[in-house]
Amino acid sequence: MTTRAGFVALIGEPNAGKSTLLNRMVGAKVSIVTHKVQTTRARIRGVAMEGDAQIVFVDTPGLFQPRRRLDRAMVAAAWGGAADADVVVLLVEAHRGLTEGVARILDGLGEIGKGRKIALAINKIDRVEPPVLLGLSKALNERHAFAETFMISAERGYGVEALRRWLATELPEGPWLYPEDQIADLPMRMIAAEMTREKLTLRLHQELPYQLTVETENWEERKDGSARIDQLIYVVRDGHKGIVLGNKGETIKQVSKAAREELEEFLGRRVHLFLQVKVRANWLEEAERYTEMGLDFKDGNG
Ligand SMILES: Nc1nc2c(ncn2[C@@H]2O[C@H](COP(=O)(O)OP(=O)(O)OP(=O)(O)O)[C@@H](O)[C@H]2O)c(=O)[nH]1
After folding, report:
1. What is the CA(154)–ligand 1 centre distance, in A?
2. Is 299 within a domain?
3. Most-buried pick from 68, 83, 131, 242 (CB within 10 A)?
């Protein structure tokens, strides 16, 4: 079997629909494994399997996100993630068309296009009439010769399959970057726990107790569209609890804030995250803990 694998960067103005498209393409097979594989400067957002191809979606770090202004200097820096990618997909909103922001991104594409294909995905086609689409596609392709143009609705799922199939064929031949069991269906709870664990790692570095685990205990969808997530951080010693809490609870507060922000971005809605640290000397021996982490627990020496 010939396998393919590579990195795909989704770029576009804030609100273009990158997260929606990513979630569609990745589906349930999403994985937060950033700390395990450091093959790229960019962060891994998700992994999708398409036939024999493994498509790894990367972030263009921070710079195309809302809240931040998209001035020229930032755009230049934002290409970091795209430059690491094998294929780049530019998302443009059908109803907004060739905005100033899009024009600025187009200006940078020449540089990025060296050595990699760039596809155009006109998103939110559910919001416009077909003639508008043809005109927009023509105008954009005149500014940059895209390898392929897709008309999609990330929200409704139109055209997404075709885009994913095309991406798979464009990736270089090579072994998969992630073992298959790492991208097996990871429930959202586990992904959320993994995010908190990652923030703890970032915050505590060497200090991080080796025997530490994070579990999502409760996930409640609220009527206002937000989610309440309760997580437990298990450590094996009292001393470790102190480390995780930090002076006056400062560490856990910062970790909680960082994890919540990432969760909100990932889910695209507000999150109320509650963290609690528990000392449980025996957790390493408890079968239940392993099962929740997606690991097989074997009794005895096995
Ligand atoms: N009508 C319509 N709305 C869409 C479509 N795709 C995404 N949206 C909406 O567009 C908005 C922005 O989508 P996101 O996926 O958050 O966009 P993003 O590019 O990740 O945004 P940033 O995180 O700000 O960079 C959301 O309200 C989506 O529901 C689509 O195909 N049709």
Report:
1. 8
2. no
3. 83
Residue nearest to atom 1 of ligand 1 (CA): 124
Which tokens hold the place of 201?
């790692």
pTM of the model: 0.63
Does the ipTM exceed 0.90?
A: yes
17 labelled ligand-binding: yes
Task: Kindly report the CATH number assigned to the domain that includes residue 252.
Answer: 3.30.300.20
For ligand 1, atom 23, name the residue with the nearest CA: 65
For 166, the domain range is 4-180
Instruction: Show which of 158, 180, 202 is a domain's final residue.
Output: 180
